[in-house]
Amino acid sequence: MSYEELKDSFQRIEDRIVDKSIKKTVITLVDKYEKTWGKPVYTQELDEIQEMINREFAPKIYMSGLKFYAFRQFLKICEEHFHNTSNVYRYITLKSTNDLKYKMLRSPLHGKIFLDSVFPEKGVEATESTVVYQAYFWLVYMGILDVDICSLTTDDVDLENMKVYVNGIGYEIYNEAIRAIKACATEDQFEYIHPKYRTLIKRYPEDMTNKQLLHGVKGAAQIDTLKSAFSKINSRSVNASSVIQGMSYQDIRSSGLYYRAYIHELTTGNNIRFYDAAMLELGDEFAENRDIKIHRNQKYYLDKYIQWKLAFNLMND
User: Fold this and answer.
1) pLDDT in tens, 219-236
2) Is the same domain home to 81 and 152?
3) What is the pTM of this model?
4) Range of the domain at 296
5) What is the three-state SS of the chain?
């Protein structure tokens, strides 16, 4: 097969991840640079190819993750077909993934390491004073929505089967999350830190009504308060150099989403299409072109998922 035939074949073959339009965009880009170079891309040095990537797949470029993935796959196919043993495709990098290493989490274990640096207290002190924030972190990471988190009760927690149930749907409790969620589900008193108070606020059984899983200063915890408090605690830790990464609410949620997609991919061999996430992004909107918007949102999540995998070296090739 000639090089031009290989390009054509690459664009025509169905891919589980990238569609034909992205492949076509990548090949058009390759053609443009090859005219300047005067030789095929697979014969170029790493520095030349990386320079092209930094320019054409910059962080703000639309679908840069999927385009980079398609280009990387094309380069790999060319090197294998033409017996180029330099394996340049293994060494090219996407600039945006460097930042993701310090904004997102690779796994629940990575999440535990992060929390241990934010909340260095050990033993009883940690169980009493920071457990609400740690449990909140894990519930977000597990994929439970804001609207459901603060309405969870202790009855929704099944420690025997390692699940938290929301409307009949079970969300897996990771091993690293057991301590915090179990403490919230079983402890009958807390000392609660709140960003507006310098002293600990003590909560006792008579204050804890309706078997609320997450307890606040005056009653049930509020999602905005939890977000604000966790953010401020994290920011203080970053400023004090006790942690190297500052995580937003969306970073926590997306890290959990992509980890579950990756585990599903490993165990079933099938790719997640992020349909549920795309639907949530759309909300209750029933506008025209709804299916188009869902597809656009799916591509957004898939693009970010590819970047997440690249950041943590999880491409499995």
Assistant:
1) 556 777 777 777 777 776
2) no
3) 0.83
4) 249-311
5) CCHHHHHHHHHHCCCCCCCHHHHHHHHHHHHHHHHHHCCCHHHCCHHHHHHHHHHHCCCCCCCHHHHHHHHHHHHHHHHHHCCCCCCHHHCCCCCHHHHHCCCCCCCHHHHHHHHHHHCCCCHHHHHHHCHHHHHHHHHHHCCCCHHHHCCCEHHHEECCCCEEEECCEEEECCHHHHHHHHHHHHCCCEEECCCCCCCCEEECHHHCCCCECCECCCCECCHHHHHHHHHHHHHHHHHCCCCCCCCCHHHHHHHHHHHHHHHHHHHHCCCCCCHHHHHHHHCCCCCCCHHHHHHHHHHHHHHHHHHHHHHCCCCCC
